[in-house]
Amino acid sequence: MRRALFNPFFLALAALLAPALCYAQGDSALRTRLRQVEADPALSAAALKAGAKTAEFCANCHGRNGQSLTADTPHLAAQLPAYMLTQMQLFIEGRRRHEFMQGLLKAMSVDEKVNVALYFSRQPLAAQASSDPTHMELAAHGKRYYDQICFRCHGAQGRGADQVPRIAGQQEAYMKLTLKRYRDGSAVRADPMMAESTRLMSDADIDAVAAHVAGMK
């Protein structure tokens, strides 16, 4: 009896692994190009100039110089470029869901993605601390929570590292929305570590942490 050329088990395994392999290859190409550009002053200067032009289109949603004004769109100013590139690849692969972003990023070249990520990473982001006494009290509660839990990954100053995003100065409304999505298991944005970290957060905790983070520098 002739053996089957394709074992059903291995076919199923290949189907499961294929998306992950595609993601790894795409992310690797972006990160490799980022390292090349960052290591060369001339390439960096050219990338920032080209990235500024691409960012003019991004400003329609993410705001001028990467400072968004809408609750469901994050600030990109001062964000870590490696993190932004990984998120771009997640959109492309459908692991982070947003139909418009997926289509847009699929149409962009590696250099276009790297250039715009570098451009936004160099833009200043102003803290949004409120002087309202009630809001300050809320932020103080958020700081206590942050200093117990969130700092372990995002750092004491909220500036992240590599694949852990900077959240210091991120807009408050977006932070609330994102934390609730993680906690509630939304398919829009899934992350096992963040799901576990937010699992026990109340709405009040989320509001407080978001208030604190928005005011961090």
Automatic annotation (TrEMBL):
Binding site for heme c 2: 150, 153-154, 194
GO molecular function, one term: iron ion binding
Protein name, UniProt field: C-type cytochrome
UniProt keyword Magnesium, yes or no: no
Transmembrane segments: none
Post-translational note: Binds 2 heme c groups covalently per subunit.
Location relative to the cell: Periplasm
Signal sequence, renumbered to the chain: 1-24
Primary site of residence: periplasm
Keywords: Electron transport, Heme, Iron, Metal-binding, Periplasm, Signal, Transport
Cytochrome c domain boundaries: 46-124, 137-217
List of residues binding heme c 1: 58, 61-62, 101
InterPro entries, sorted: Cyt_c-like_dom, Cyt_c-like_dom_sf, Cytochrome_c4-like, Cytochrome_c_Oxidase_Subunit
UniProt GO cellular component terms: periplasmic space
PROSITE patterns: CYTC
